Amino acid sequence: MVAEGLRKRFDKRWALDGFDLAVPAGTVCGLLGPNGAGKTTAVRILATLLRLDGGRAEVAGHDVAREAPAVRRQVALNGQQSTVDDVLTGRENLVMWGRLYHLTRRQAEARADELLEQFGLTGAADKRAKHYSGGMRRRLDLASSFIMRPSVLFLDEPTTGLDPRNRGEVWREVKRVVAEGTTVLLTTQYLDEADQLADQVVVLDTGRVAAQGTPDELKSKLGGDRIEVVVRDAVELPLVADVLGPDAEVDPDAFRVSAAVTDRVAALTRVASALAAKGVEAEDIALRRPTLDEVFLAITGHRAEARA
Amino acid sequence: MNAVKFAAVDSWVVAKRDLIHWVREPVRVFANLAYPVISVLIFGLVFGSAMNVFGGGDYIEFLLPGMFGQTIAFGVGTTLMMVSMDADRGVTDRFRASSMSQTGVVAGRSIADLVNSSLELLVLALCGLVIGWSFHDGLLNALLAFALLLWLRFALVWIGIYLGLLVKPEAAQASWMFLFPLTMFANTFVSPELMPGWLRVVAEWNPLSSTVAAARELFGNPGVGGDSWAAQHSLLLAVLWPAVFVAIFWPLSVLKYRNLSR
């Protein structure tokens, strides 16, 4: 999947303004950004749902503008909302999509049974989808995207609105299909989701790529690991700061002192014994990599929150 | 050849989905049917005794074709609702991003809506027969009248699709507020001749009036004719008006569908 200089305008605003992307086959790319950054627009263009105003894009070897039908045969789209039909049973939902993808009735039924099995829905196959949990609906929705074994899957905020347990279930399914060789373009506002699933993260801000790299690369751009010490008594904060060295940052409200370190575990032992020698009893000592939230803040200069 | 076959399969699959909805959630069908049936009883039996048919005749005989017409016109609300819900839930996007035939989506919509409206007409007709309505010019003419009503319904499918792609479901819900007066400023319940001048013109030229007047003529029910050109050429207009709607809203819908949220 390749995009070069994608531009898309809604009224007078550029939703995408020179967006580049390159996703190797069989990998997961996470598109990260707040609401309005252009994530969904990018996905909709690549899935042939929106026409582009500039640039070019190729998905599964076909140009999205000139060869849309060929692209459509290779991709599947899972939007933000569930397209599961509540009144139909799980199996009927899958058979319906199978028929719309032009399988014969028998093929559609066989494929539905396979997918129900793979996505752990066999037990609920003949229940109407309105009785499904949020996670089951998502899984059914995902399963319906896999009817034609697409080589590229677009997941637009797949776990928005799900509780942690259901998110875990969906993540597991996504990892499974990636292991089978599907290329995935995932958009998300959840930074831990990109961290969990993506080989490569692209941070979008107002229609442009603000940064990209592996989740680890992005985090190390922020100066790598930090050690954090939390104490019970504010009086002890200066003592801890002494131990952590000249770069230590003190957060008096949280009773916390932190500093960048390079030697990870060695630093942890060193700090722990130095604190013990000074008689400081730490509430908590931890090594921490910066969260993608912090990465986002550092890259774009504003928080990863929905902006009006 | 394949394209035709796939269009047929796709439209059947889409239509079947809606028909399953109606079978499994009959509350909606009953709600849809209850309104016209209750209206027939209220207008026919309660107000009926105080109603005059311009030019004479039995009010229930006059009313039933009007009720058929109103039911058909309300159908546009059903189409609008279903289309805007599919668009809102992302189902339409899934359809568009798949290799399914795009004709199939709308053809399926038309089939399901026409089946639904036929059922409503059937129930209304039975109800009418019970309280004293009948057709007097033969079964063939009666079937022709129903065909004209469904022809209008088919045209309204396209208006419904276009508007449904344009608005959110909440707005689609509000469409009843506009539909209701549109079906009343017509010859459905009262002869336009009895209305004040300006409203009379509106009612006479209301496309729904043409279909209703044509149906009255074919059923042999009272209230046919009038001074206006529109009233005198109701059969012609009952064919033409829907054709005009189709000619305008078919291309508009196709265009809108292709360019959704450009």
Automatic annotation (TrEMBL), chain A:
Domain ABC transporter: 1-231
Keyword line: Antibiotic resistance, ATP-binding, Cell membrane, Membrane, Nucleotide-binding, Translocase, Transport
Membrane topology listed for this record: Peripheral membrane protein
Pfam family, one: ABC_tran
SMART domains in alphabetical order: AAA (SM00382)
Keyword field contains Mitochondrion: no
A GO cellular-component term linked to this record: plasma membrane
Descriptive protein name: ABC-2 type transport system ATP-binding protein
TrEMBL record, chain B:
UniProt membrane topology term: Multi-pass membrane protein
ABC transmembrane type-2 domain location: 27-260
One of the protein's GO biological processes: response to antibiotic
An example molecular function term from Gene Ontology annotations: ABC-type transporter activity
Transmembrane segments: 29-50, 62-83, 119-136, 142-167, 174-190, 235-255
Compartments where found: Cell membrane; Membrane
Keywords attached to this entry: Antibiotic resistance, Cell membrane, Membrane, Transmembrane, Transmembrane helix, Transport
InterPro entries per UniProt: ABC2_TM (IPR013525), ABC2_TM_bact-type (IPR047817), ABC_2_transport (IPR000412), Nod_factor_ABC_transporter (IPR051784)
Gene Ontology CC: one annotated term: ATP-binding cassette (ABC) transporter complex
One Pfam family matching this protein: ABC2_membrane
Similarity-based family: Belongs to the ABC-2 integral membrane protein family.
Listed name of the protein: Transport permease protein
